[in-house]
Specification:
By secondary structure, the chain is mostly helical. It has one domain: Growth Hormone, Chain: A (Up-down Bundle), CATH 1.20.1250.20. The protein is built from 16 helices and 2 strands. It has a two-stranded antiparallel sheet. A hairpin with a 2-residue loop joins strand 1 and strand 2. The radius of gyration is 22 Å and the shape is globular.
Length: 442
């Protein structure tokens, strides 16, 4: 019997997309003000200011981000082997909410550690499960609708991020940290409720138990992870630089002329540029830039990643130049940051979106969620490096051993060497492996 195709969307999709928009609002809203909070608003138990140095704040921020992207390994195992995705998402979403509200209530270092720890557990644990739940809703009759739904899914992520990075910094500036951290908590609570309302409309895929664990830790799983690791170790360097847009770039913006496009910006509001540029660049690259490059040479996923790594270098050269101007007592206009965001967002589209594609095409079917978490581990690795670097360059009095220009120059050179090494040492061999794998799968 031939199954008839249908254009009817699965009933659970609106609940997943709504959940994702609210959850991303909560995460990126909280993240956008984190470094400013640690350097300007942090208190001791007596209610007096107990703020961190810039280097301490950057290290703390990147250790937190590393945790968020490392914990998906455990979330994927918990969901796919033991509890199933729905139970895992619901339980960890509650933990996520508690983290936000801890930050809203307690502005001390203890509150910061507890709040960020709970958020890392919640956000990291559900991250590989939600996107995989989208695919679970489809059958052979409507799987042709998956690209459209993932388009909505990605739009919801960037819509939530753009709105949050615009509004939450303003709340912090005018109403303080309690209101600014409470609003992401409310958004996460709404996300949890939306997902719970969809419980009877979702297709629930049962956990795989021992079969999943055998896939992951068996020979096929080990070979897949080893092959991807040889690519993702380079991708992790990209994330080492990209995530500094919410740490080093925000701190730098405090010393810039923030009047741009007819308005006065807050230093942390500049992050709004990334999701806006992302929504613009994805169709631009898909329908114009990629086809144009493909006429010159075949543009495989790994070649996109290589081009994106090189593009990250000029994106970081701009804040290096800005830092040099600041060291001379000048105040460059924040419009330079918007230009840097345009370039690094273009690199993100080439590296991040393509890395996800590469992970899904290389992973066995029963390991999709876990391999998704393996990709997120590259982000954790990059942030771990940046965090440790900021710890290493601290003097005993918490000042930096490096000037601002030296700091940015280090990452410029590091990224350039990484891109060159990727092209000449890894790309050709892995490209052949990738093509052979694709041909074998056809």
């Amino acid at each position: 019997m031939v199954e008839t195709k249908t254009n009817q969307m699965p009933r659970g999709i609106p609940y997943i997309v709504g959940n994702e928009a609210a959850e991303r609002f909560s995460y990126y809203g909280m993240r956008s003000i984190l470094v400013i909070f640690m350097t300007k608003y942090l208190l001791d138990r007596s209610g007096h200011l107990d703020v961190m140095s810039d280097e301490q704040a950057k290290a703390s921020y990147h250790f937190f981000t590393m945790s968020v992207y490392f914990l998906p390994f455990f979330g994927a195992i918990l969901a796919d082997a033991f509890l199933g995705k729905f139970k895992t998402i619901m339980i960890l979403s509650i933990v996520y909410c508690l983290g936000h509200f801890t930050l809203a209530i307690d502005s001390t270092r203890l509150g910061l550690v507890i709040g960020l720890g709970l958020i890392a557990m919640g956000a990291g644990g559900i991250k590989p499960c939600v996107s995989a739940t989208v695919g679970d809703q489809f059958t052979t009759t409507n799987q042709h609708l998956i690209p459209r739904v993932y388009g909505w899914f990605y739009f919801s992520i960037n819509f939530g991020s753009a709105f949050a990075t615009w509004w939450i910094p303003d709340l912090l500036e005018h109403h303080g940290p309690h209101s600014a951290f409470a609003m992401p908590g409310i958004a996460m609570l709404i996300a949890t409720i939306i997902f719970w309302f969809g419980r009877n409309r979702f297709i629930h895929v049962p956990p795989g138990g021992k079969a999943f664990l055998q896939d992951v830790f068996g020979s096929v799983g080990r070979q897949t992870m080893l092959k991807l690791a040889s690519v993702y170790v380079f991708v992790s360097v990209f994330w080492s630089l990209w995530d500094q847009t919410a740490s080093a770039w925000v701190l730098q913006a405090q010393n810039m002329d923030l009047q741009f496009l007819g308005r006065q910006w807050l230093p942390s509001q500049i992050q709004t540029a990334n999701p806006v540029f992302t929504l613009m660049f994805i169709p631009l690259f898909s329908y114009l830039i990629y086809p144009a490059i493909d006429k010159v040479f075949p543009l495989t996923p790994l070649r996109k990643i290589g081009l994106g790594l090189f593009l990250t270098v000029p994106a970081f050269v701009i804040p290096t130049w800005v830092e040099k101007q600041i060291s001379h007592g000048l105040h460059p206009n924040v419009g330079w940051h918007f230009l840097a965001y345009a370039i690094i967002t273009a690199a993100e589209v080439m590296v991040s979106v393509t890395s996800l594609e590469f992970a899904y095409t290389q992973a066995p079917n029963r390991m999709k969620s876990f391999i998704m978490s393996f990709y997120l581990g590259a982000i954790a690795l990059g942030n771990g490096f940046t965090a440790l670097f900021n710890v290493f360059i601290q003097n005993p009095d918490k000042t930096s051993k490096l000037t601002g220009v030296q700091y940015y120059l280090f990452f410029d050179v590091f990224m350039l060497l990484t891109a060159i090494t990727f092209i000449f040492s890894a790309l050709r061999y892995k490209e052949q492996t990738y093509i052979q794998n694709q041909n074998a799968s056809a």
